[in-house]
């Protein structure tokens, strides 16, 4: 066995990993104890990376050869790389000549490596002659970029992860760190354990696990962030907690902002935000007097039609109090994707150029033109993400080249996105996974490498550059993203501008890196002192690290000099504006979207593992109990969530985490796992059918976090639940085969379940769970193929059918040598009572309580227990019921009971993602009577 150090491919924390492999197949992964981002820790997603790279998953889900449709609407056919590249170049050149460079739109991803990004950026701006390139980082980080540049002068997070341990007050706003950045949450927990006086303030409309851990939760109304920050600044001024010396020496524009916040009294701020006045006062005093103060923020600020204003208003608080450029202090944007920072560094967006240069600056354009050896870089900004797809839907953009991202799941207003993908004359999808929704629209499919196979660099949230190293060869015919872009660029140059073919003479990823490095010379992110060799010998490094330097700079602006023309930071005089789409009588609910703990984006990778659905096992919409009562809804009832753009059908879930008139749906639920028909009979497209395309005027980042929706109960009396273990080498392929059948139902969800493990793990297994509903049974012609795929139509399967009542049941049972029966699969249609009990028997691999045939008797399932327990710990498959039972036996203080729980059940001892929930359960669960204590210790 061999080991290769690399970097995790999920969030912007940038954790180091050690990949275990045999040179051909990845067999394991663990955290790199030497990496300064995580020191060996991994979250539930990172800890299962090796399982997503197994040979079985690769065979069933990966795109392994180039493919193209020989005619529009026909099935994609495998072709050679020569054929795919020639056809792609021919078509792009044809459209370029016929309609001009702006007829081609390139949409790339924050999950690409810096080297990949660089080649794509140069291809569009240096060869095609437009700036028509944007990235899904526009959907997650562009407001943070605009906010930093508007106030501090540069897109440069000033803080470092070490600041977590130095802070006295931590202001977490617009971020559910416990789920979105779990490893940073562990570091923050360590900091508070070492310094019990550290205070946490969490501003979030929902009571998330992060908010549950806070000393002060501010459940502000959606969209009222700027009003809160202005109200805090009003109090900081009133109570003399601003740093007048810092303001005078290092900033400008304060007078206008001071006048702006004069009317944001505690009473007015409470009215605008829905918060208690006393809580606003407490937050201001902690922010200004319990210093140093560190702010941590993410999509709750960024994904907004006023995202730049929210970011800038928060930074204003740090400038007013001088809480920047010091250990434990500063405004720290937590990056969403693994290399959103690297993409911005190379200018891979419609309004940026390499080395943090601005497209609108003629000097900057001339510098890049000289570096690339081209006469000029076009001055006109390209269309940003939402604008690009709107233009394609209107017929202006003729070609869409999409790399390493899934807009048919992740973009807002899916009706427009899908119209764009259908209308474009050419859709090129460059992708590792063949199972994404976007692949279904592709005219050309180009297979790309992914984690464990790629070679290059990424930059994390603290400006730290890490190496990504390949452990195994690319499977099938997959190629590196930069290599595909290089080869297309060379063929395009031969057709359009032969003199520019040499622009893409890159033999290795390192050769691209060296050119990128030179583009940073003299810039704020100068890395001319950094090399692949230094990253190999000294490990990951923060920028800037100019030539002659030995290490990168930990934090920025320590000298009070900012990246503006005069060196002074600028206060942003921004107004509080209401939501782009406030709720009203027709759409009375505020819908919020966000992440799940164990899933990533559109789930093309994490969604291949059944174990990662254990914590959140089915799509749903969270609503407050009062709203359920008012609408006469029970948990599990199907509801139609409608906006002005589209709708989605989901089961409803009771949740105290949301306030009345608010609702929450996870961002991950797209067409890959959800299906059905809307009220007009059209196919549904997941949660982003309802989200809002309105964007921030400065950052062009769309309002993905909020939409006004109506929620109505849907009467679909015929129900189906089917669940079965399948051979691991076939389960994911069966899922893909079943997807085409799901549109026969008004609602359907199809998810893997199970406990994947190493080859030696005898308990490892994988299955599929299908839930569906319709006004009436779709008939046996539709149902028989599904039963066959799940192995529930085979000889020997116990079956019962009552055509008059529309009831169907089927049980696949295995008998061991002793004659004991165990459930291997079941089908319950019509009335699905008891399906939760059957699921618990199946997942636990328990012996049936009696002969299986008895479960087919009328009414048998209705007499069984109603539901299974929720999984809390993914690593060791520990349920909430088991945890509460064990906690009843644990005595002592809260910390002692947690330790006893971990010792007994192991939960919280591996990745730690479940620790916030475990601490909450410790608080909620009394010690059982008879053990000496019956109430919780204080």
From TrEMBL:
Known cofactor(s): [4Fe-4S] cluster; Mo-bis(molybdopterin guanine dinucleotide)
Domain 4Fe-4S Mo/W bis-MGD-type, residue spans: 1-57
Record's keyword annotation contains 4Fe-4S: yes
Stored Pfam families: Fer2_BFD, Molybdop_Fe4S4, Molybdopterin, Molydop_binding
InterPro entries: Asp_de-COase-like_dom_sf, BFD-like_2Fe2S-bd_dom, BFD-like_2Fe2S-bd_dom_sf, CT_Nitrate-R-NapA-like, MoPterin_dinucl-bd_dom, Mopterin_OxRdtase, Mopterin_OxRdtase_4Fe-4S_dom, Mopterin_OxRdtase_prok_CS
Keyword line: 4Fe-4S, Iron, Iron-sulfur, Metal-binding, Molybdenum, Nitrate assimilation, Oxidoreductase
Listed SMART domains: Molybdop_Fe4S4
Keyword field contains Metal-binding: yes
Family annotation (CDD domains): MopB_CT_Nitrate-R-NapA-like, MopB_Nitrate-R-NapA-like
Family the entry assigns: Belongs to the prokaryotic molybdopterin-containing oxidoreductase family. NasA/NapA/NarB subfamily.
Name this polypeptide is given: Molybdopterin-dependent oxidoreductase
Organism expressing this protein natively: Ideonella lacteola
């Amino acid at each position: 066995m061999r080991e290769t150090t690399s970097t995790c491919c999920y969030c912007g924390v940038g954790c180091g990993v050690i990949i275990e492999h045999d040179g051909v197949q990845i067999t394991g992964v663990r955290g790199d104890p030497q990496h300064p981002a995580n020191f060996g820790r991994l979250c539930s997603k990172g800890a299962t990376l090796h399982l997503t790279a197994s040979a079985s998953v690769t065979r069933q889900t990966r795109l392994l050869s180039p493919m193209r449709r020989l005619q529009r609407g026909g099935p994609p056919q495998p072709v050679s790389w020569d054929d795919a590249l020639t056809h792609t170049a021919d078509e792009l050149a044809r459209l370029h000549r016929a309609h001009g460079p702006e007829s081609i739109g390139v949409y790339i991803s924050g999950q690409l490596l810096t080297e990949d990004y660089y080649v794509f950026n140069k291809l569009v701006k240096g060869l095609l002659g437009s700036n028509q390139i944007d990235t899904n980082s526009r959907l997650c980080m562009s407001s943070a970029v605009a906010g930093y540049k508007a106030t501090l002068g540069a897109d440069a997070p000033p803080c470092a992860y070490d600041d977590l341990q130095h802070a006295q007050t931590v202001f977490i706003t617009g971020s559910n760190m416990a789920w979105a950045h779990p490893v940073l949450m562990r570091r923050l927990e360590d900091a508070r354990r070492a310094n019990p006086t550290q205070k946490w303030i969490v501003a979030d409309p929902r009571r998330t696990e992060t908010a549950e851990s806070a000393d002060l939760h501010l459940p502000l109304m959606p969209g009222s962030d700027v009003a809160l920050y202005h109200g805090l600044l009003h109090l900081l001024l009133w109570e003399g907690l601003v740093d007048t010396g810092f303001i005078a020496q290092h900033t400008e524009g304060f007078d206008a902002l001071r006048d702006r916040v004069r009317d944001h009294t505690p009473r007015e701020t409470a009215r605008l935000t829905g918060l208690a006045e006393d809580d606003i006062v407490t937050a201001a005093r902690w922010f200004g007097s319990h210093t140093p103060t560190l702010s941590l923020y993410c999509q709750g600020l960024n994904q907004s039609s006023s995202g730049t204003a929210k970011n800038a208003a928060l930074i204003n608080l740090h400038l007013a109090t001088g809480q920047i450029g010091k250990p434990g202090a500063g405004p720290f944007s937590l990056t969403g994707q693994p290399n959103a920072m690297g993409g911005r560094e190379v200018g891979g967006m419609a309004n940026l150029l390499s080395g943090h240069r601005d497209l609108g600056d003629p000097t900057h354009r001339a510098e890049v033109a000289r570096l690339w050896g081209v006469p000029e870089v076009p001055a006109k900004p390209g269309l940003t993400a939402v604008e690009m797809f709107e233009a394609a839907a209107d017929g202006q953009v003729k070609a869409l080249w999409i790399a390493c991202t899934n807009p048919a799941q992740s973009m807002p207003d899916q009706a427009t996105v899908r119209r764009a993908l259908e209308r474009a004359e050419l859709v090129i999808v460059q992708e590792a996974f063949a199972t994404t929704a976007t692949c279904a629209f592709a005219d050309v499919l180009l297979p790309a490498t992914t984690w464990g196979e790629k070679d290059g660099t990424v930059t994390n949230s603290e400006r730290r550059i890490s190496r990504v190293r390949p452990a195994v060869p690319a499977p099938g015919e997959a190629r590196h993203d930069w290599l595909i872009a290089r080869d297309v660029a060379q063929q395009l140059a031969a057709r359009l501008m032969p003199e520019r073919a040499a622009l893409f003479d890159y033999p290795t990823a390192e050769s691209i890196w060296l050119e990128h490095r030179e583009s940073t010379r003299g810039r704020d992110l100068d890395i001319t002192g950094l090399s692949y060799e230094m990253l190999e010998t000294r490990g990951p490094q923060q920028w800037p690290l100019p030539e002659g330097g030995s290490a990168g700079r930990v934090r920025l602006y320590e000298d009070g000099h900012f990246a503006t023309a005069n060196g002074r930071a600028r206060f942003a005089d921004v107004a509080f504006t209401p939501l782009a789409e406030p709720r009203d009588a027709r759409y009375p609910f505020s819908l919020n979207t966000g992440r799940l703990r164990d899933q990533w984006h559109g789930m093309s990778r994490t969604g291949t593992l059944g174990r990662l659905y254990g914590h959140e096992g089915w799509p749903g919409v969270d609503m407050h109990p009062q709203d359920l009562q008012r609408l006469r809804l029970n948990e599990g009832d199907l509801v139609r969530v409608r906006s002005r753009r589209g709708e989605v059908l989901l089961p409803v879930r009771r949740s105290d985490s949301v306030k009345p008139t608010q609702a929450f749906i996870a961002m991950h639920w797209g067409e890959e796992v959800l299906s059905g028909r809307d009220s007009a009979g059209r196919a549904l497209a997941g949660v982003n059918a309802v989200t809002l395309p309105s964007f921030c005027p400065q950052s062009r980042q769309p309002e993905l976090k909020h939409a006004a929706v109506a929620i109505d109960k849907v009467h679909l009396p015929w129900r189906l639940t089917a669940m079965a273990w399948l051979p691991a080498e076939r389960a994911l392929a069966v899922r893909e085969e079943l997807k085409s059948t799901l549109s026969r139902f008004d609602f359907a969800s199809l998810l893997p379940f199970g406990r994947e493990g190493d080859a030696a793990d005898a308990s490892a297994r994988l299955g599929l769970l299908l839930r569906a509903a319709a006004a009436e049974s779709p008939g046996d012609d539709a149902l028989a193929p599904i039963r066959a795929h799940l192995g529930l139509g085979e000889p020997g399967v116990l079956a019962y059918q009552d055509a008059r009542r529309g009831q169907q049941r089927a049980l696949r049972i295995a008998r061991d040598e002793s004659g004991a029966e165990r459930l291997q699969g079941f089908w319950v249609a019509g009335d699905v009572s008891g399906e939760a009990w059957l699921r618990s028997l199946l997942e636990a691999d328990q012996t049936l309580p009696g002969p299986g045939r008895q479960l087919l008797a009328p009414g048998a399932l209705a007499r069984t227990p109603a539901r299974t327990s929720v999984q809390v710990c993914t690593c060791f498959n520990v349920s909430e019921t088991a945890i509460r039972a064990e906690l009843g036996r644990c005595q002592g203080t809260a910390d002692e009971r947690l330790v006893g729980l971990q010792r007994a059940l192991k939960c919280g001892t591996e990745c730690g993602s479940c620790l916030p929930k475990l601490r909450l359960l410790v608080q909620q669960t009394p010690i059982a009577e008879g053990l000496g204590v019956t109430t919780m210790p204080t």
